[in-house]
Amino acid sequence: MEVRHNPAIDNSSISHQHHPSSPVIAAASPTPKHPKPSSNTVDSNSVSQRLHKELMSLMMSGGDLGVSAFPEGDSIFNWIGTIEGGKGTMYEGLSYKLLLRFPLDYPFKPPQVKFETMCFHPNVDQFGNICLDILQDKWSSAYDCRTILLSIQSLLGEPNNESPLNSYAASLWNNPEDYRKMVHKQYFVGEASES
């Protein structure tokens, strides 16, 4: 049986009592019982689908560029990434591991990214935190994991010394020989401690 609202009859003042023997007929309500999700709300299925697409895209092209990433364990929201030091940079020949944690509202919010491998760099602190504008105030939902990894790889060879997290590395940047020694020293000390 279909109940239709008759605007000529106003039942708002009528008290309805339910008796166990009588059927309950629900009147159409002008407001839905469940609030509409906001336009910024993303369900975890769509985020998961996007991350799967990004993973496939990265697997098809990332290795050629010196970047890769794969989910860590069973969660598509936690990845381990790898970047190779760019040719012609002081990081050439070195491979860095990163942790990527994607929020449930990705891609509207950036993932948390930090170095797992010790990295001596002006824009990386001793805990592996990275100062990179696209991971903060310059984030765009158009960016993907590949873009993030390539940006970090580029940052290795082109630091922003105006906004250093590691002021010692920033001050040493203009002395390539000493800088390279520190890069290798921290890298290999970090590798030894991971073993």
Automatic annotation (TrEMBL):
Positions in coiled-coil regions: none
Gene Ontology molecular-function annotations: ATP binding; ubiquitin conjugating enzyme activity
The UBC core domain, residue ranges: 46-192
Keyword Secreted listed: no
Signal sequence region: none
CDD domains listed in its UniProt record: UBCc_UBE2C
Record Gene3D superfamilies: Ubiquitin Conjugating Enzyme
Biased composition annotated in UniProt, kind: Polar residues: 37-46
Region (Disordered): 1-46
List of catalytic residues: C131 (glycyl thioester intermediate)
UniProt keyword annotations, A-Z: ATP-binding, Nucleotide-binding, Transferase, Ubl conjugation pathway
Broad enzyme group: transferase
Highest taxon of the lineage: Eukaryota
Biased composition (Low complexity): 12-23
UniProt EC number: 2.3.2.23
UniProt similarity note: Belongs to the ubiquitin-conjugating enzyme family.
Protein name: E2 ubiquitin-conjugating enzyme
Organism, as annotated: Dillenia turbinata
